[in-house]
Specification:
- The chain has 16 helices and 8 strands.
- With 402 residues, it is α/β, with parallel strands linked by helices.
- The chain has one domain (35-371).
- The protein has a 6-stranded mixed beta sheet, with helices on both faces. It has a two-stranded antiparallel sheet with strand order 3-4.
- β3 (124-125) and β4 form a beta hairpin.
- α1 (5-24) packs antiparallel against α16 (375-401), α10 packs across α15 (352-364) and α13 (327-334) runs antiparallel to α14 (340-348).
- It is globular.
């Protein structure tokens, strides 16, 4: 059957339809176990639980060692302490990080904080390998168990003695991102004291995922994913693909302007079926650990493989509330006996969902709602059509000449 001009046009239309489906299809959850049988999946889950147990045991060992080493504080002041086995170069970088963080710390803390830098060289605990992490510094937090009490941040540092490593390997610790995240929840205790009972309950059931950044003199910039780093087809031709991939469907609805979705995402957190790995996790009553290092949270690769309810900037929500409302009004919310929704409404004069929608607009920009065809996708379709038409015309012309 000869491919006439009309048939070439029909084929071009079909190819354009296939391209549009490929671009606009609903993303599927990534799975690393799709080719494993049930036994291997259970074995992998058991191994993950064992690694988590080893990691937590290591943290408990460090806490016991640090508490014995630093002893009781002589006063109700915050302290910064360093292990003795750091090299001069690394010690100088860590001192710079501590000095940068001190700029935004109170002179008279409501809850004193012990910031302790330790060199953690352990690779296994009782024969079980410890999970590695990207970056050079990871912090675990021991929250006050009673009032009055102290909050302790144990900063675990990697030290690389490889002469071939670049000079700027630790430079990520000297920027605003690292210093604003260094104290984590301890920064809120230091400035605002112990939270009210309902606020504390909300924090312990997932709210700390929204309060890891504890410097309210830092205006976080709009998130700009490195869209072209890995060459994904969707990343190139869909402008908001990176944001969609880094949030849950409800979280993206919030970013796209839904006040109800913003309220639900912030107050209730992700539903159990979302199967999200928490960025921060409170365990053993008052010990909180993070899944990332201080100098790695801005990486596009990290957020391409680990979604969050409200995306990578959700760590800034509590600090942004403190910055936009002011420390005094935030303190009243923080120490309130009411729920987060009620306390925020009383102080801000607006709903927490409405404020979160405005926050999302500042940190992510405008997002589209519902089905649409982006300009890049339309141009791709036109380009494919022109290529197909040109090929068809060239074929017909060759046949006429022949």
């Amino acid at each position: 059957m000869a491919l006439t001009f009309s048939r070439w046009l029909g084929l071009a239309a079909i190819l354009c339809g296939v391209a549009a489906i490929a671009i606009l299809r609903e993303p599927k959850e990534r799975s690393n176990n799709s080719d494993l049988n049930n036994f291997r999946r259970r074995e992998n889950r058991a191994g993950a639980h064992l690694n988590n147990a080893a990691e937590r045991l290591r943290i408990l060992m460090l806490i016991d060692s640090v508490e014995r080493s630093i002893g009781r504080a002589p006063s109700a002041e915050s302290r910064v302490l360093f292990a003795r086995n750091f090299s001069p170069t690394v010690k100088r970088v860590l001192s710079g990080l501590a000095d940068n963080a001190a700029v935004s710390r109170p002179s008279r803390p409501l809850v004193p904080v012990d910031l302790v830098f330790v060199l953690d060289t352990a690779h296994e605990v009782r024969g079980t390998a410890l999970k590695g992490y990207f970056g050079v510094l990871k912090v675990d937090y021991v929250l006050p168990a009673s009032t009055p009490g102290r909050c302790m941040a144990i900063a675990r540092v990697k030290e690389f003695r490889n002469a071939y490593l670049p000079r700027g390997f630790y430079s990520g610790l000297l920027g605003d991102v690292a210093r604003s995240q260094l104290l984590g929840p301890c920064g809120f205790y230091e400035w605002f004291g112990a939270p009210g009972p309902q606020i504390d309950r909300w924090l312990r059931t997932g709210g700390w995922d929204f309060g890891f950044v504890s410097a309210w003199d830092v205006v976080y910039p709009k998130w700009q994913p490195r869209r072209f780093s890995y060459g994904s087809f969707e990343e190139v031709f869909l402008h908001d693909w990176a944001v969609r991939a880094a949030t849950t469907p409800r979280g993206f609805a919030c970013l796209a302007g839904s006040v109800a979705a913003c309220d639900s995402a912030l107050v209730h957190g992700p539903p159990a079926q979302a199967d999200l790995s928490p960025n921060t996790q409170l365990w053993s009553a008052n010990i909180m650990s993070t899944r990332f290092s201080m100098d790695f949270t801005e990486s596009w690769y990290f957020w391409r493989h680990a979604r969050a309810e409200l995306g990578p900037r959700q760590l800034t929500i509590l600090s942004e509330i403190a910055r936009t409302l002011g420390p005094d009004r935030f303190r009243r919310i923080w120490q309130s006996n009411q729920s987060l929704r009620e306390a925020f409404q009383a102080e801000a004069g607006m709903g927490i969902g409405e404020w979160t929608r405005e926050w999302a607009g500042r940190l992510y920009g405008a997002q589209s709602r519902g089905p649409r065809l982006s300009l890049a996708s339309a141009l791709l379709g036109v380009l494919l059509s022109l290529i197909a038409i040109g090929f068809a015309l060239a074929t017909v012309q060759r046949r006429r000449v022949a």
